[in-house]
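Researcher: I'm preparing a figure for a lab meeting and need a structural model of a single chain. I don't have an experimental structure, so a prediction will have to do for now. The sequence is pasted below. Please return the structure as tokens so I can convert it later.
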Amino acid sequence: MECPPNIEFDDLCMLNLFTDTAARILHPSGSNPSMVTPEAIQAYIREKLDCDHLAVEGDGAHFQAMIVSVAFTGKSRVQRHQIVYAALGDRMREEIHALSMQTLTPDEWSHHAVKL
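Model: Understood. Here is the structure written out token by token.
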């Protein structure tokens, strides 16, 4: 990994270069065996939460999810996210770097403009 153009070579860039070099030494094929996939996140969520619809996209570090469940009925947005975080458990700290999500009830989903 190189520092992007027009960015000073600083400590953060040095850390990124070091991290990338270490990853290449440890995993010369370019694959990272600990990298989580969107499919794995879907499986983790489905294991603990009954979903009417579930779609997860992402790049191995940052993910976006559309989650539709009757369990969200009557819950605030924060409570809905807490339900998903509880379903993911320790994986949110250990495997998943960032997860943005839309959490809808089946009724809300039926009126939602964008379907993933």
